[in-house]
Amino acid sequence: MKKAAIGIGSNLGDSARICRDVFDLLGKHPAIFRVRFSSLYRTSPVGDSAGGWFINGAALLETLLAPEALLDVLLEIERDFGRVRTIKWGPRTLDLDILFYGNSQIDLPRLKTPHPLMSERLFVLAPLAEIEPEWIHPANGFSVREMLDRLLATDHGQQIQKLEE
Which candidate in 20, 36, 83, 150 is catalytic? Predict the structure, then answer.
């Protein structure tokens, strides 16, 4: 059994409903166990996203799936929600990213963990810090909470607001 952290985001359609539906799907998968979810957050886009603000969250889970098999499950869920990859960082109905997979550092063409940009992304760190603040990044040695605090101490230009449940 491996512990994994998943980032969840959407900015097309009913994004809050989509994220909540994904939480339900992950919790029902036969090879995924002990799932915890963060609150949802409304976040400003980063990069060249023309689709506007996002709804983001995070999931913490334990799984029997190998890293690439977990990625395949996430990509299938994205497709089921109408995800079409056309523009990097562009608008999307759903984006699911493996942020951590145990303490593994994976560098494959289709999967890199820890997620390479997570320490620069408020929309990743804030939800993850809510559910697993002490997880240590195996490459930089900082906890999720420490990475969040370091990002908040900079002029990061990102905005985030917790959604009311």
Answer: 83
92 is catalytic: yes
* Distance separating alpha carbons of residues 1 and 33, to the nearest angstrom: 9
The CATH number for 66's domain is 3.30.70.560
Whether the predicted model's global pTM rises above the 0.90 cut: yes
Give the C-alpha separation, 163 to 30, whole Å.
29
| Amino acid type, 93 | T
Q: CA gyration radius for the chain? A: 15
Distance CA 12, CA 8 (A): 13
Rounded CA-CA distance 119/117 in Å is 6
Q: Which structural domain, as residue segments, surrounds residue 47?
A: 2-162
Active site residue 48: no
CA atoms within 13 A on the CB side of 74: 25
For 82-106, the pLDDT digits (tens) are 766 565 555 678 999 999 999 999 9
The number of distinct structural domains making up the chain is 1
pLDDT 10s digits, 130-139: 999 999 999 9
Positive or negative torsion for Cα 116, 65, 91, 13: negative
According to DSSP, the residues that pair with 57 across neighbouring strands are 8
The average confidence (pLDDT) of the chain is 91
